[in-house]
Design goal:
single chain, about 280 residues, alpha/beta, four-stranded antiparallel beta sheet
C-alpha cells in the first residue's frame, strides 16, 4: 500500500497490485506501481499521474494555455516528467519545445514504464535534440534565470508546493513567476499547476492566486471538474475576457482535447469562493 498525505490528519491509501519501480533518485522517492487506476506514478508518496486519469490532468494543464496564447510555436516545459504536455504542444503546432527537468532518472523511468508520454525512443531523440522536443536535465529555476530564449508558453508542472522546506518551492514564488513572465513573447502565457481546489487542501491555490494577480495583468483559472487539481494562466497584457477568447479558439486549436469542450471552459473558469475571497 502507498499512503498519500492529503492534508493535516487526512491520508489516502492506494492498494498496490504490483510494484514496477521503487527507487530513490537524487531528488525524490519514486514509485511506479500498478493500481486500480492502471500504471501509476508516485513521487514522495504523492500520486503524480495514473493511466486512468492522466489525460484529464494534462489537458486541463495544457489546453487552456494553448488557447490563451496568441501563438503556439515555442514552448518551455519545466518538470512534467512524463512528457505528455510536450507531445500536446507539438500536436498543436509548436516547432520548438524545450523540456527542462532536474531529475534525469525520473524522466527515463517514466518513458520506460508508463504507457503514456514519451517512449524510450522518443526520449532518446529528444535528448539529442532530434525533432521539435529538446530535453535537458538541469535545474528549471536556473534555466529560467539565465536563458536568453523567448517562448509563447512557459509551463511549470511540479509536485505541489510544500509547507516545509523543499527544493522545488522556489518555482512557485512570485520572483520565479516574474522571471517566467520576462521570457514571454507578445501574447504569451505562463501556466502553473497551482494546487487543489478542495477547502481542506487549498492553501497553495490561494497563495498562487495572489501571486499570479500580483505579477500578471490577465489571470485565468481552470479548475478540473473531473480531477483534484487547479491551474492558473497569466498574460503580461490585458485580455478583457480570457474565457471567451479560449472558447472562441477551441475549434481551431491544432490539438483537439478529449476531456475539455466549450462548456467545460465556461464552467471551470471561476475560482472557488474561498480562493477569490482569500
Amino acid at each position: 500500500m502507498i499512503r498519500e498525505p492529503l492534508a493535516a490528519g487526512l491520508t489516502r491509501v492506494w492498494e498496490v497490485d504490483e510494484v514496477v519501480v521503487d527507487t530513490q533518485t537524487k531528488f525524490q522517492h519514486l514509485v511506479i506501481a500498478r493500481t486500480a487506476q492502471g500504471l501509476s506514478l508516485f513521487c514522495d508518496d504523492d500520486r503524480q499521474s495514473t493511466e486512468f486519469s492522466q489525460l484529464t490532468y494534462h489537458e486541463a494543464l495544457m489546453v487552456p494555455a494553448l488557447l490563451l496564447a496568441d501563438r503556439v510555436d515555442r514552448v518551455l516545459v519545466i518538470g512534467s516528467s512524463e512528457g505528455v504536455v510536450c507531445q500536446m504542444a507539438v500536436a498543436a503546432g509548436a516547432s520548438v519545445v524545450d523540456h527542462i527537468d532536474i531529475d534525469e532518472e525520473a524522466v527515463k523511468l517514466c518513458a520506460e514504464h508508463l504507457p503514456y508520454g514519451y517512449t524510450p525512443e522518443e526520449l532518446a531523440a529528444a535528448e539529442q535534440g532530434d525533432g521539435p522536443v529538446r530535453v535537458q536535465y538541469i535545474d528549471g529555476y536556473e534555466y529560467i534565470r539565465t536563458t536568453s530564449e523567448r517562448y509563447d508558453i512557459v509551463l511549470v508542472d511540479l509536485p505541489d508546493e510544500r509547507e516545509e522546506e523543499a527544493q522545488h518551492n522556489r518555482l512557485y514564488g512570485e520572483e520565479f513567476l516574474a522571471m517566467c513572465k520576462a521570457l514571454l513573447t507578445p501574447g504569451g502565457v505562463v501556466v502553473s499547476q497551482a494546487g487543489c481546489q478542495t477547502m481542506w487542501r487549498n492553501t497553495t491555490l490561494k497563495r498562487m492566486w495572489q501571486r499570479f494577480n500580483d505579477v500578471f495583468a490577465t489571470v485565468a483559472y481552470y479548475g478540473s471538474d473531473e480531477h483534484e487539481w487547479a491551474y492558473l494562466f497569466g498574460r503580461a497584457d490585458e485580455v478583457a475576457d480570457p474565457t471567451a477568447l479560449m472558447t472562441e479558439r477551441l475549434k481551431e486549436c491544432g490539438y483537439q482535447p478529449e476531456t475539455i469542450d466549450d462548456l467545460a471552459l465556461l464552467g471551470n473558469s471561476i475560482p472557488p469562493y474561498q480562493v477569490r475571497n482569500a
